[in-house]
Write a structure and sequence with these properties.
Blueprint (H helix, E strand, L loop, with lengths): L1 E3 L2 E3 L5 E3 L2 E3 L9 H16 L10 H16 L11 H19 L7 H8 L4 H17 L6 H15 L8 H11 L3 H10 L5 H16 L7 H4 L2 H11 L5 H10 L2
Antiparallel strand pairs: 1-2, 3-4
Length: 254
């Protein structure tokens, strides 16, 4: 509760920012189910005509999925802060369900194979990429812009630990930069005020995301990292669109 003059202002349990319902303290979206329903609804409404065993090649469905479904699902995902592992896993399951449907694969198909066949990433990687690009936008603003000055102040507060509850975007971005070994760029910005241009930063971020996702993960990682399997896995995983579906297109139209 806040007292402003003679007026008592009650604290709200949620708020809406850029159409996203947020929980207090700038944490994750209040209801992850809304994001899941948006992903499923957009996918089935945009692909119900072209997908299926008698439909178009899965690479075409994936183009629709990337252009329409992911963009709508991840709208303002830069504001998704402190998303729990359980909530992220729910989004990943919905994401894999759409990818299986696009390729007409059974539900029992391994998760890593679902993404490899289309050369795509998981939802967390897409979100991490967008958060890092958002950081590049903020750092490339002129200091005369109010947005940049607010960002610099929040950056100072975060690294000097002035506030105890660091829930916002910077906490997530700092962890993401460490994951992709890009922390030196933000350190340079803090010390010198210099940051790569947006086009340079975009190229670097996408390269690091692609490189990180080309590494095997999960329970099958030890097997895939053996000398006999590692080279093939890395080659296939690094392709923008997997060779299996590209080869099927070439075979049909040859």
């Amino acid at each position: 509760m806040i007292i402003y003059g003679d007026t008592t202002i009650q604290e709200a349990t949620s708020y809406v920012h850029f159409g996203i319902t947020q929980s207090p303290c700038g944490k994750s979206p209040l209801t992850i189910d809304v994001v899941k329903r948006k992903m499923r609804g957009t996918y089935f409404s945009t692909t119900f005509v072209v997908r299926g065993t008698a439909g178009v090649n899965p690479t075409t469905v994936m183009k629709i999925y990337t252009t329409c479904v992911l963009r709508r699902t991840l709208f303002a995902c830069e504001l998704w802060n402190d998303v729990t592992s359980s909530n992220m896993q729910l989004l990943e399951r919905t994401h894999r369900m759409c990818l299986k449907s696009a390729q007409c694969l059974p539900k029992s198909t391994r998760s890593d194979m679902v993404t490899i066949l289309l050369g795509t990433y998981n939802i967390k990687s897409y979100r991490n990429e967008k958060k890092q690009l958002f950081l590049g936008t903020l750092c490339n603003m002129k200091y005369s812009d109010l947005t940049n000055r607010i960002f610099v102040k929040r950056l100072f507060h975060f690294y000097t630990a002035i506030t105890e509850n660091n829930y916002g975007c910077l906490k997530d971005v700092n962890a993401i930069l460490q994951t992709y070994e890009l922390s030196n760029s933000l350190d340079m910005y803090r010390s010198t005020g210099h940051f790569p241009t947006y086009s340079q930063w975009k190229r670097v971020v996408r390269e690091h995301v692609r490189r990180e996702k080309s590494k095997p993960s999960g329970a099958r990682a030890p097997h895939l990292m053996t000398s006999s399997a590692s080279g093939l896995y890395t080659t296939v995983r690094s392709q923008p669109t997997a060779g299996a579906w590209r080869s099927s297109v070439q075979t049909v139209f040859r």
